[in-house]
Amino acid sequence: MSLSSKLTTAKRCLTEFGRAIGVPVRMLLYLPRRRKWQRRTAELLDAPLRPDEIGELNAAARARFRQHLDGVELRRIFISCGETSSEGHARAFVAELRQHLPDVQLVGFGGRALEATGVRLLGNLVDVAVIGAWEVIVNLFFFVGVLSRYVEFLERERPDVVVLLDNPGLHMLFAEEAKKRGIPVLYYICPQYWAWAPWRMRRFRRAVHGAISILPFERPLFEAQGIPTAFAGSPLLPRVPDLAAEPRDPVLAILPGSRRAEIERHLPGMLGLWKSFKAQHPDARAVIPQQNTRQLELARRIASETRDLASLEIIESGAFAVLAGARAAIVKSGTSTLQTALCRTPQVIVYAMRGPVAAWLTRQLLTAPWFGAPNLVLGRAAFPEFAFHGEGPWSSILDQLLEVWDEGAPRTTQLAACEEICSRLDGPGATTEMVRWLLSASSPADDSSGPRAADP
Predict the structure, then answer these.
(1) Which fold has domain 239-424?
(2) Which of the four CATH numbers 3.40.50.300, 3.40.50.2000, 3.40.640.10, 3.30.200.20 does domain 3-236+427-438 have?
(3) I want to staple 448 with a disulfide (CB 3.0 to 4.6 A). Which of 55, 77, 191, 419 is the partner?
(4) Domain definitions of the chain by residue range
(5) Is the N-terminal amide bond of 184 cis, ω within 30° of 0?
(6) CA-to-CA distance for 416 and 437, rounded, in angstroms?
(7) For residues 41 and 294, what is the distance between their CA atoms, to the nearest angstrom?
(8) How many CB atoms lie within 10 A of CB 324?
(9) What is the DSSP letter of 32?
(10) How far apart are CA 413 and CA 21, in angstroms?
């Protein structure tokens, strides 16, 4: 590692340490303006994009971003993703990109699945996906090493463009290091600063050249900050499998998350819920899907420590395969809630916080009226959601789950809401839109058409 990259990394670590110390002050300064941000967010949630305006708005944003790519022949692209779901999006992007630029060199951070597509990995972030400041501290030396390798890569090989997917904590640093070297930065799956840390929007604006959102209400919010932003539609839509017809088999999908900490916080309570649910529906069975081998083993270990479990399977699988045939689901807040809605599967959304301090901070900082992605997309509370710490209100969660399991108005209402979500999340195609932003205006992939059902 060069002396320059070592010095850059050390300086960056000191800067971030200073920012971390200043977070409480920023939070206090934000609190008097919280209601303003809450009103702004509510207005955005209440004003979805019209399908007929998406194409024109996306084309305008794309043109502004391309100014930074004038005269650049794309030979080397850096791409980075930090956990399982964003790695799936990255793989789809790589496959689409290679159809137009078969000889482009792709280098980045990701997991083994991304590496299998031919991307040269500088390190594996997916197997070390973390949540919260404490887990970052525990893995601090790992992330310092990641940043060092990234900086050295920028200095020695200099990519033509940097593409970052989700994971705003680390990727904000990646974006800033690239932009100060004059390398265009495209950010896909925008950070949800609008929901919990709106003061960070200015830093995001200074760090990126363009952004592509997967939620329709995000585009005007980031555009208001001066960031060229397109709404691409959900990358999940093309991956929705053939769905089982109603009435579905008595299968409950249990989705505790894809990161280690998420599984440890959510799965024990979900297993307890399953035992109570099974007592009322003896014919039901439950399935827990996990794609990552390590998380699969963790889920099996936690289940083995829980007594009197019956009719429970823990399988190596993606969520879609299970959700497509499930009658209902209990889902940890996150991408899986949208997967569940797209599979037309009624659900109850939960989020277990680390402790009372985290719970208090969430209540103070959250600017959106809901935290479940399906409710945010619809702009109303169509799906029950529970955020808690400690033991949790599992009896109330069970009551809601029983309501959407049985035939009746709650189930019918959720099924109708799922259809509406599918319509609102439709767009030009997520991976297609990403590729359009990188190719020249004369490329055959450049098409300003509006929504369509799936990526090619």
Answers:
(1) Rossmann fold (3.40.50)
(2) 3.40.50.2000
(3) 55
(4) 3-236+427-438, 239-424
(5) no
(6) 34
(7) 37
(8) 19
(9) G
(10) 46
Q: What is the pLDDT of residue 3?
A: 64
Q: How far apart are CA 168 and CA 337, in angstroms?
A: 20
Residue position matching structure tokens 């058409």: 449
Residues in Cβ contact with 409 at an 8 Å cutoff, skipping those fewer than 6 apart:
none
Secondary structure of residue 391 in the 3-state scheme = coil
Which amino acid is it at 58? Answer: N
Dig out the tokens for 186 from the structure.
């495209």
Distance, CA of 375 to CA of 380 (rounded, Å):
5
| Order of strands, sheet of 185-188, starting from the edge strand that comes earlier in the sequence | 120-124, 105-110, 76-81, 161-165, 185-188, 210-213, 229-231
Three-state secondary structure along 409-430? HHHHHHHHHHHHHHHHCCECCH
Helix (H, G, I), strand (E, B) or coil at 339: helix
Please tell me if the domain spanning 3-236+427-438 has the same topology as the one spanning 239-424.
yes
The residues near 262 (Cβ < 8 Å, ≥ 6 apart) are: 131, 256, 332, 334
User: What confidence score (pLDDT) does residue 130 get?
Assistant: 60
Name the one residue in this structure whose structure tokens are 């007929």: 52
Q: What's the rounded Cα separation, in Å, for the pair 263 and 246?
A: 30
For residue 309, what are its two tokens?
């479990």
What are the average pLDDT values for consecutive 10-residue runs of the chain, which has 456 residues? 68 69 71 78 76 88 92 92 87 93 96 95 84 63 87 95 91 95 94 80 93 89 91 89 89 94 95 96 97 93 90 95 97 95 98 82 80 92 93 95 97 97 88 86 45 43
Supply 408's token pair: 């009746």
d(CA 456, CA 105) in angstroms, rounded, equals 22
Four-residue CA torsion sign, 247, 248, 254, 259: negative
- Residue given tokens 């799965």 in the structure block: 267
Per-residue pLDDT, 49 = 75
> In Å, how far from its chain's centre is CA 47?
22
How large is the C-alpha radius of gyration of the chain?
Answer: 22
What whole-number distance in Å separates Cα of residue 194 and Cα of residue 199?
9
Crossing angle of helices 140-157/3-30, nearest 10°? 120
How far is Cα 88 from Cα 92, in angstroms, rounded to an integer?
A: 6
Task: Give pTM, 2 decimals.
Answer: 0.79
d(CA 318, CA 404): 23
Read off the amino acid at residue 364: Q
d(CA 439, CA 74): 8
Question: E strands along 31-81, which residues?
Answer: 76-81
Q: Residue 53: what pLDDT?
A: 87
